[in-house]
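Input/output pair, single chain:
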Amino acid sequence: MNVLTAISALLAVWSLLRFLPAGWDGYGPLPYIIALLRFLWIPATACLAGAILFQDAPAMFIAAFVLLLIFTVNSPWYRRRNPRKPMADNGSSAHRESLKGESSRSTNQKSEKEQRKEAKSGGSCPVGTANGRFEPASAGTDAANASRNPSHETNHPQRRETGDADIMVMTLNCQYGHADASSIIRAVRQHDVTVLALQELSGKLVNELELLGLSRILPYHQFGLIRDTDNGGFNGLWSAQPPQDSYPDATDIKAASVPCMTLDGMDFYSAHTKSPMRGCRQWSQGITALGRLCPQSPAVVPFTGTNTDANHETTHVEQVAATHSTGQRMNTVIIMGDLNSCLDHPSFRTLLTHASLMDAGNDETHGRVASFPSWLRWPRLELDHILFSGGINAPDTFSLPIDGSDHRALLSRLRME
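Output:
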């Protein structure tokens, strides 16, 4: 076997790692090796050219196979072929239109320069929570009051009369809380964001967002619990509409807790699974465990309600399972966040398939919506995702830079079917 054939064979084995069973990608360097699969066309093309030049038939055949495989699994058709079970209408489609209507913004805002100056002088920021709800340090400011009293008349966005059932959502990894608060708020305003999911939050960043007026735009929020397993910070959700229910910790994964908001028949989650460098096994298990949030997933074990602990408080996942086991109508599921994985990872594909989820980035017909790293134009990976269950499609998904973060923000316009 000559050098070209050996290299081509190695590339072929590398490309086939994509088809490992779920969980097998949670060992050693495999998450990183698999993440680079889409770039194998570069060495494979070089091998094919060399094989043609030196008339090496075995190397030519193997390199051509690798190229065909890589281009097939990266084609828009293949990326969108993930099967999804249709979900029954939960009877709330008429109410969903009001979610978009709530996103009209108040124009009574301070100048950005004044807001930035006020945020910088905000002093120290605590990190305490009560049921996942952050208590800002500067309680006397309008923004802080809006956080704790969202029904205050001056903080309500004006409802817009519209028949448009689209809603705009946004997710961002804030890189240990270093993301620029004014840049986040600018994106929320410019793109009329209705639901915002942030990961790797810090107390300082939350205070800056409050002082700059995020609560006047999105007055309702739910934070995840702060705990030792946080990977870079805690997660949070903001909404223009008051939630019917919310949880600081919707499911148990060994990573930052996953807050949840229920808005007109839709369960929104902000999730951040561990990166492989924090533990490959926990990385894989955290991704697949998100399937428990979806009632149609095999990961959901029917809840019988027979817990013998008198002090046991029913978890969100147990309520999902209980509703599913009784045949009741289920909420639409929307999971947003940095999942540290892409479609080439078997664990991530298993989450999509078993939980009948679609990826907003895969709904795009012009290629992936890559978000990391923000400072490179190419190559980038799509580590950030907006996943959703039946009854929704994503006609418009894109990313944009946010100052101070190594991730780009991912935005998607979700349309109710």
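Residues 85-163, 299-313, 321-328 have pLDDT under 50 and may be disordered. The CA atoms of residues 137 and 275 lie 31 Å apart.
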